[in-house]
Amino acid sequence: MADCEPIAHQFMDLTVPEYAYMFGFLQADGHLQRGIGQKGKLTVELSARDVDLLQEFQRLTPFYSKISTRTRSTNFAALHTSAIWALCSLEARTKLNELGLPYGRKSKTIAPPRVEFSGRDYLRGVIDADGSVGFTSKGFPFVSLTTASTAMASYICEYASKATGAERIPQRNSRDGVYNVLYTMEVAQRLTAGLYYPGCLSLERKRAAAASLTAWVRPAGMRAAHTRRRWADHEDRILLKLNSPTAAAEVLGRTVQSCNLRLWRLRSGQVPLPSSQ
Hints:
Elements: H1 17-29, E1 31-34, E2 40-47, H2 51-60, E3 65-72, E4 80-87, H3 90-99, H4 119-130, E5 131-135, E6 141-147, H5 150-164, E7 179-184, H6 185-195, H7 204-213, H8 233-242, H9 245-252, H10 256-268
Antiparallel strand pairs: 1-2, 2-4, 3-4, 5-6, 6-7
């Protein structure tokens, strides 16, 4: 964590790593509620073991806020103590709302900011709040994000593609309609190494988990990770002309999944259309 001196930047300047992280965390795990007139408040409730992070949020906020605790029974423990950070300032709430933190229920509507922001810090905040970092039951490194927001699922897929070369098509699961975006093995190592850099603001336990992934080595005899094959303009033209991932996969010698993802990227503007010849 950073020291206890106030940060010398404008509140919620998302080009500042700490604010980008904080905003991502608030979008995923904060609750902004309206009151009568101009009243209202922002609250974040975490396990008491994570109170250090709430104290950092309090330090980063140049408006009065408070941290309280409560102990109650839950479905997971007979007694559970949590820490709650509460911020009532209208000016602060207005700023957060303008940046993209909605009032009330927000799980499906949150999206990356439309202003300039520090991407890796923002995404780390989202993952700390709604994601998981660690090892699978088989001992393989992984990082995942569960979200109901299409925009958020698309963002992590786009970020990870640029950072690691691993491509994913965001798809809702059939059980509860949310997105479960998962990265494993070396991809998870590369992704977390970039997100959880030395000295970054984060949940201590998530940062420790990310650090533990670096020691993993692919077991002898396990097939090496696939190296991404870049798309050429002539392949994009064939894919668009055939308009069928299955047909294009046979012609281009690629997988149907790869062709399906590339076709989606071309149609959605995620990548530029090929030059005409």
